[in-house]
Design a protein that fits this description.
Elements lengths: L20 H16 L6 H8 L3 H7 L3 H24 L5 H15 L5 H9 L4 H27 L8 H14 L14 H21 L1
């Protein structure tokens, strides 16, 4: 009788699942990282949330930094897909930028993005940081193409599209500002998005329109 072949340590059993194990781990890790920050989340925390062993997490991801990087890259790719859909609709550019701003603010309402980036900068290696930067660059490229297309269609005046995109993204970060009592600058996400877009639009195009 042949001995039963042992599976590698940490490899999950082969059985039908609603979602692949690595996807479940990524989703759980993303939620934990965004809620608690990088430093306060351990592989044990991720394993517990997924109801798998620590060895299973390490089977798919060699370190917490690798898990974090993949979680953030996948999150940004998901955002890119939604951003592309919002920028592709047949509406004026200003409306589309408002829709992106509103979605961004809703998704990041309870997240300290600036602190999040600072916390992880020294925990990732150059390759991991580059992976995240490449994913972020895709978002910038989508926005820049929207400006280029709007210029070609004579919807907006000629502008430096890279300056426009980086200005837009910088102003979006203002929407995440919180007062000392944790309240936002404006009562609602919709009002915050409207003020951001009006400020951006008037600042970029007012002189050309006069």
């Amino acid at each position: 009788m042949k001995a039963k072949k042992k599976r590698p340590l940490g490899r999950p059993p082969l059985r039908e699942k609603k979602k692949p194990t690595n996807v479940i781990i990524l989703q759980a890790a993303t939620e934990l990282f965004l809620t608690n920050g990088f430093q306060d989340v351990s592989i044990d925390d991720v394993a517990s949330k997924c109801n798998v062993t620590k060895a299973t997490v390490y089977y798919y991801f060699e370190s917490k930094a690798a898990l974090f990087t993949e979680a953030m890259v996948q999150m940004m790719l998901f955002i890119c897909d939604h951003m592309e859909a919002m920028l592709s609709v047949n509406e004026p550019l200003k409306n589309r930028l408002y829709n992106v701003a509103e979605a961004h603010l809703q998704a990041t309402f309870n997240i300290d993005l600036e602190g999040f980036v600072r916390e992880t900068k020294n925990s990732l290696n150059k390759k991991q940081l580059q992976q995240m930067q490449d994913s972020e660059e895709k978002m910038f490229n989508l926005l820049e193409q929207a400006f280029i297309d709007a210029i070609k269609a004579n919807e907006i005046p000629e502008v430096n599209t890279k300056f426009a995109v980086h200005s837009y993204m910088a102003i979006l970060k203002v929407g995440n500002y919180r007062n000392s009592d944790k309240t936002s600058l404006f009562p609602t996400v919709e009002e915050t998005a409207e003020n951001i877009i009006n400020f951006f639009w008037n600042g970029l195009f007012q002189k050309q329109d006069e």
